[in-house]
Write a structure and sequence with these properties.
Elements: E1 4-8, E2 15-20, H1 29-43, H2 50-59, H3 61-64, H4 68-85, H5 98-108, H6 113-132, H7 160-172, H8 176-188, H9 192-197, E3 207-211, E4 222-226, H10 229-238, H11 261-264, H12 269-277, E5 280-284, E6 290-294, H13 300-310, H14 316-323, H15 327-364
Antiparallel strand pairs: 1-2, 3-4, 5-6
Helix pairs in contact: 4-6, 5-6, 7-8, 7-12, 8-10, 8-13, 13-14, 13-15, 14-15
Length: 365
């Protein structure tokens, strides 16, 4: 009888090809496609479980539109959510009693409050995606309070003393180009992703104009940074840095290559130098004792805000427009770092003048 060959996608899988011929047949393009589809279908999660919703979200435009850094951070939290509830039915998320389960998960991670809060945020966005797709009816992660108390960083900025300590630590570690990034951040207020991706093409005669990589309220805004005298001087200096052929970014590392956000940022080289320089913000805790908090690269935006208020003499509203902040937040920085400093200087000058007048009167007698 003629030899008949039967080709299956995998052991126990569907039949994808049948051939009647003496020699073993070659797979056709259609058979390859059917095998790939069969394997993908076999590996797909049960559509009734939360894991299937996670897979669908990762493939959806909402996920792909997130910034790369956000996807990286949230992806780790999604893995934790998968490990906790991935094999559980989606239907259980329509039960309001799941709020207590979510609270328990948050409390179990209280030792790392910021990470626990991010986990709740990711779960809330996952369930929001599911609700809009008709997979769940309610979002039990809505309204879960945060554990992390350091979220309000409006009063935290980098001072000149901080920047000098960072400069010394960077030079000692033979990473002077990190100090370039710190100075550029202080004179532009750009976020990390925009800082490392800033090119010479973004520079104009009177301002830097760059579309922000990070979305704010679902939209990418244009960052318009005034070209101050201090910024112009720094840019002239940065043009002299060694850079590889074809590299057009303003900032480069010691090898002359462009920085990546992960390589430069808080968990990368910048964070290492910050720890070495012991850059912290000290404030009074609830018990009256001093509490130290690390200063982040993002806090340098507050330094830029003080520059707008002092060197550029902008109003709170104008500074807020450039920073994409509320005028109230700018007013808080003005009160803490601009007006308070002016009051202290004024008081010191008056005290010196009064003390000098007394000395002068005493000498006369």
């Amino acid at each position: 009888k003629p030899i008949t060959w039967y080709v299956y996608a995998f052991k126990g899988g569907p039949l994808v090809m049948k051939a009647v011929q003496p020699k073993k047949p070659l797979l056709t393009a259609e058979a390859h496609t059917q095998i790939a589809n069969a394997i993908q279908a076999a590996n797909a999660p049960d559509p009734t479980t939360l894991l299937s919703l996670i897979h669908d979200w990762r493939a959806a435009p909402e996920w792909k539109n997130l910034a790369e850094g956000t996807r990286r951070t949230w992806g780790g939290q999604l893995d934790l959510i998968d490990g906790r509830w991935g094999n559980k039915p989606i239907a259980v998320w329509d039960d309001p009693r799941m709020v207590a389960k979510v609270m328990k998960w948050r409390d179990e991670r209280a030792i790392t409050p910021r990470s626990a809060d991010i986990g709740i945020t990711v779960l809330r966005e996952l369930l929001k995606f599911g609700r809009l797709r008709g997979r769940v009816r309610i979002n039990v992660a809505e309204g879960i309070p945060h554990l992390y108390k350091g979220g309000d960083r409006a009063e935290i900025i980098w001072t000149q003393a901080d920047m000098e300590a960072f400069r010394i630590a960077a030079i000692e570690a033979k990473r002077p180009n990190l100090y370039d990034g710190l100075r550029l951040a202080a004179l532009t207020g750009l976020r990390l992703a925009d800082l490392v991706s800033l090119t010479w093409d973004h520079l104009g005669e009177v301002a830097i104009v760059k579309t922000a990589l990070k979305k704010s309220r679902g939209k990418r805004r244009k960052a318009i940074v005034p070209m101050t005298a201090s910024l112009e001087e720094l840019l002239v200096e940065l043009r002299t840095r060694k850079r590889k052929e074809g590299v057009n970014t303003v900032l480069v590392n010691e090898r002359g290559a462009s920085w990546t956000a992960a390589g430069f940022g808080g968990s990368g080289s910048f964070g290492m130098i910050r720890e070495k320089a012991k850059i912290v913000h000290t404030e009074e805790g609830d018990d009256g004792q001093p509490v130290e908090r690390r200063k982040h690269l993002h806090d340098v935006r507050g330094t830029f805000c003080t520059l707008l208020l002092t060197e550029c003499e902008l109003t709170d509203e104008d500074a807020a427009r450039i920073m994409a902040w509320s005028p109230a937040r700018v007013a808080k920085i003005r009160e803490t770092y601009v007006d308070r400093a002016a009051v202290v200087i004024s008081l010191a000058e008056r005290m010196r003048a009064k003390h000098g007048a007394k000395q002068s009167g005493g000498d006369t007698q």
